[in-house]
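Q: Transmembrane protein, please. Structure only.
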Amino acid sequence: MENMADRSKYINIFFSVALIGVTLLCHVLLAVLFLDAPALGLRSLVVVLDPSYITPLVVVGLLSALLGSATVAFATRCAEHSLWLRLGTANSKHPLTVGESRRLAQWSVSPLGRLKYILHGQSILLKVSGILLIATTAAVGPVLLSGISQEDSITTTSSLQAPAVDVWTPWITSGNQVNRGGSANDIPIFTAALASNNNLSVPVAPVCLNTNPSTNCTVTTRSAALFATCTPRTLPNTDNMASTICSGTSSPQFRNYCSAIVPSLCVNLTCGSPPVFANFLTGPDPSCVPTRTSAGITYAPSCNTIPSTWATIFGAWVGGKDLSIGDPTVINTVDCTLRYGNITVAQSGSSPPSLSRESFEPSAHLLSSYRSRISNVRTFVWHDAGNVQHTPYYFTLRYVGTGVNNIYTTPVASGLLGEDASNGAEHVARQIERNFDWATLAAFGKGVNASWVEETRRVTEMRYR
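A: Structure for Transmembrane protein:
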């Protein structure tokens, strides 16, 4: 009998200690979950959208239920033990009555019974434990669950990459780096003009690779740029230029219009058949001094003596003379200066890059001081009059009454001036600026390693707190 009693005693102690251990473990896990959830090693307890069923709501619910059950079981065992002691002890100071037996039975199975026992029960310990049980089962779980909320967590990392090649490398091709007898076009500038005139998007640069949907990746660079600044002007077409019939025998059959940037850079419009209704020239930078000879205009080899100066574009046109779409009473002119320097380019994720025109910084160095091949490119080579004829902004347009109009054989002119040369001076000026911006952005996309690149990755996650 003594062995059996000892065994029962040890079993009772084991289960009591086990219930106490489970209760303490639940308290510790709940405390760790709210104070340092990452320490538990489960990402789903921290990140809201993690693909896992083990979330804080689930864990709190399970731990609260386990805590309540363990507490109830332990308290019930204590109550049962107390009951049997009072039943089996003849000298009990508080003998068990029928009413107390009923209250103890209700206390062990019902929260309402525990409330009633607080008012009518005899055991002070059971009254206190009843209050704790009610608090554990009815309050702890909801309070813990209400403490779980969500917030945005933002992690930002940045990296800076210096140019690995010469900054002008993306602008250089096998066609524009040598003279090739004056026969080669500058393909990058032609391509940019055609694409920009037709509102095509700039190619996306191969940056911000291997990013997940929650990562906002932005690249900001300082890139080599050719920058156009254009001034539009209009004046009345009093001499009926660009018409197949001149105003009269005393009227001039042509008129010259000259650049304010390089006064020697002039174009003419004519009347008579076939009339010249649009004329564009690409010329030198303001430092070049022209020399007129019997062979034409030549420029001194001392060109490009002003830092950042590159070239000049000047054009004049009259619209609406062929198809009556534009305004034939207005002569439009555009005067553009081209400079070289660097500019800020930005790209966000897989969106096309963009630039800030306000960020352009003209170069402080002469072309002759560059050690790269850009000093031989010039995009427009001025020292040979034949070379400038291969630039996109060098064309003369005429039309005749039979329907022949060479604007339709000159894609850059057609896109720039529009149908029947109906685009106004303001539109064309801004379009030329956009065309060179497009060329700069395309060069960035072609050779990211030729720019100073700062990549910023911003990871936004919904986290529990």
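A: Brief note, in case it's useful. The two ends are 57 Å apart (CA to CA).
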